[in-house]
Amino acid sequence: MNKPLSSTTKPIQAIQTIMDALLPHGQSKVSPPKRRFDHYNGNGNVCYLIQDGCIQLHRTLDGMTMNTVKAPMILGLSNQLVPGAEDFFFTTETVVSFSVLTAFETTQIIEREGLWEFVSVFQAYILRNLTQLNMKLTALTAYEMTRNQLINLMNEPEEIRSNITAVQYIQEHTKLSRSGVMRMLSQLKSGCYIKLNKGCLVKINNIPLRF
Questions:
Q1: From 18, 97, 99, 150, which residue has the greatest number of CB atoms within 10 Å?
Q2: What is the pLDDT of residues 7-43, one digit of tens each?
Q3: Domain topology for 12-137
């Protein structure tokens, strides 16, 4: 593990090491797009090992989309470590392959296999990403939030970007009004700062910091 804890680079080695230890104990599943999964079921808190595909994390309070996550990823590990982690749920954006096991069993395996160092690196990465997300949503103007989400959308896989309009994506991530978002997108399109095709984002051209 050569990456420092402060790194924002996804710690693939740490995630894969944890997943390799957990996968033999999980139940394998495949989900089509647009399915919802909660971090709690009849057996208590559960942990999801995302092996392939893309998912979106949502806030339970209002359903707002918080982030898009690509495999490999571990979800639900914090449920056993931090109260309140169940305040979030996720939906599949593409076909997703994953395994499921209880959060309690997950921590038992981590303890038995001596994986807490890898878990600390992974949790530090999650914390850094949540901090960056909070900075993007706090004390920003409507335009700045729109600009941030357009950039995020442009970085999404083509499979996602071509199947959601820019308006829908921005609303899901910010809860800005539809009319306000459409007005800003119309102005950006007229100024040739963005290119849309049937509402879907195709290209960004030097989009200004303020507008």
A1: 18
A2: 468 999 999 999 999 999 999 999 999 999 988 776 6
A3: Jelly Rolls (2.60.120)
